[in-house]
């Protein structure tokens, strides 16, 4: 589906309860899915666990909604630069840059997205959970397809040279998604600091794709 119609991750903060999702994302990032309890989330939120259960039947349902919100933020970050008058290589670099920054700025949510991928691979879930995970993986695949679509345009207009666009994009997104594993904000870090780091990462990726020099 590299060039097809793409779905977007829906906004998943039920009734606007963004604080709950943020608290849950931080707990899942720090402790992992299995070690995190509803009590942990409630303590982080500064509320009773009854507030959590008011919105979610289980920890798994909460985890899935955090995953959805992470993907929604990914789409929101790259959407403004997908289309435009620039060549495919220029737009692809802009997409990579925005995704890298989103990984840093939404670190807790994007860590949960990566955890969700691992959960899907392990398949240690109930049939209903498996159904939801498959839906989440479809959203993830649609996000990847955005990059493939622009990369194909770059190949056609000569701004990108990639023998296999699908493999190139998977490798590039793999490198960007891995940011959530090694990156942690430093004391006093600024937006400019994150931008400089993101540009270094993306320039390395684009060099590998042999894009034309600006």
From TrEMBL:
Keywords assigned by UniProt, alphabetized: DNA-binding, Transcription, Transcription regulation
DNA-binding region ranges: 37-56
GO MF, one example: DNA-binding transcription factor activity
InterPro entries: Homeodomain-like_sf, HTH-type_TetR-like_transc_reg, HTH_TetR, KstR2_TetR_C, Tet_transcr_reg_TetR-rel_C_sf
Transcription regulation found in the keyword field: yes
Domain HTH tetR-type: 14-74
Origin superkingdom: Bacteria
Pfam families referenced in this protein's UniProt entry, alphabetically: TetR_C_24 (PF17932), TetR_N (PF00440)
PANTHER family, per the entry: HTH-TYPE TRANSCRIPTIONAL REGULATOR BETI, HTH-TYPE TRANSCRIPTIONAL REGULATOR RUTR
Official protein name in the record: Transcriptional regulator, TetR family
């Amino acid at each position: 589906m590299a060039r097809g119609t793409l779905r977007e991750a829906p906004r998943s903060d039920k009734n606007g309860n963004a604080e709950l999702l943020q608290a849950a994302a931080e707990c899942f990032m720090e402790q992992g899915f299995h070690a995190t309890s509803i009590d942990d989330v409630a303590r982080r939120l500064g509320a009773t666990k009854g507030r959590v259960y008011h919105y979610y039947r289980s920890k798994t349902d909460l985890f899935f909604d955090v995953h959805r919100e992470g993907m929604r933020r990914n789409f929101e970050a790259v959407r403004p630069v997908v289309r435009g008058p620039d060549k495919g290589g220029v737009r692809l670099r802009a997409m990579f840059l925005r995704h890298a920054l989103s990984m840093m700025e939404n670190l807790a949510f994007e860590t949960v997205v990566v955890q969700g991928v691992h959960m899907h691979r392990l398949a240690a879930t109930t049939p209903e959970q498996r159904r939801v995970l498959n839906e989440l993986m479809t959203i993830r695949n649609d996000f990847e397809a955005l990059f493939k679509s622009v990369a194909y345009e770059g190949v056609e207009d000569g701004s990108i040279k990639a023998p296999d666009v699908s493999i190139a994009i998977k490798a590039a997104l793999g490198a960007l998604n891995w940011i959530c594993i090694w990156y942690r904000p430093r004391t006093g870090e600024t937006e400019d600091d994150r931008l400089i780091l993101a540009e270094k990462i993306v320039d390395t990726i684009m060099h590998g794709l042999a894009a034309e020099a600006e």
